[in-house]
Amino acid sequence: EMLRSLVGSEMCIRDRSEEFTIRAGVGYEIVANDFLAFNFQFSDHIFETEITGTKKNTHNFEVSTGFSVFF
User: Fold this and answer.
1) 8-26 confidence digits (pLDDT tens)
2) Are the beta carbons of 24 and 41 closer than 8 angstroms?
3) Which residues fall within 8 angstroms of residue 15, CB to CB, at 6 or more apart?
4) What DSSP character marks residue 51?
5) Residue range 16-54, pLDDT digits in tens
6) Where are the beta strands (DSSP E) in the chain?
7) 30 has which bridge partners?
8) How far is the C-alpha of 28 from the C-alpha of 2, rounded, in Å?
9) Pairing with 67, which of 7, 33, 52, 55 sits 20 to 30 Å away (CA)?
10) CB 16 within 8 A of CB 47
């Protein structure tokens, strides 16, 4: 099963003011049998930052994998 997400939220970085963040991602879940599933997800967190002294858009990439056991 293909998974997709697009989320907007506030994020606090280094105790500074909160920054608006967009998170876009895709993933895939494979159900192996009645009690076991595996998943993989890739996301990009996009926000504007001034940590280096100049404003710029930053992309933080996230890759995650996992499995689920149903009982």
Assistant:
1) 777 666 666 667 888 888 9
2) no
3) none
4) T
5) 666 788 888 899 999 999 899 999 999 998 888 777 778
6) 2-12, 18-31, 36-49, 56-69
7) 38
8) 5
9) 7
10) no
Report whether 63 contacts 25 (CB < 8 A).
Answer: no
Tokens found for residue 67: 């499995």
Eight-state DSSP code of residue 34: S
CA distance 69 to 35: 5
Q: How far apart are CA 58 and CA 71, in angstroms?
A: 41
Report the phi/psi class of residue 24: left, alpha or beta, with left for phi > 0 and alpha for psi in -120 to 50.
Answer: beta
Asked whether the beta carbons of 49 and 13 are under 8 A apart, the reply is yes
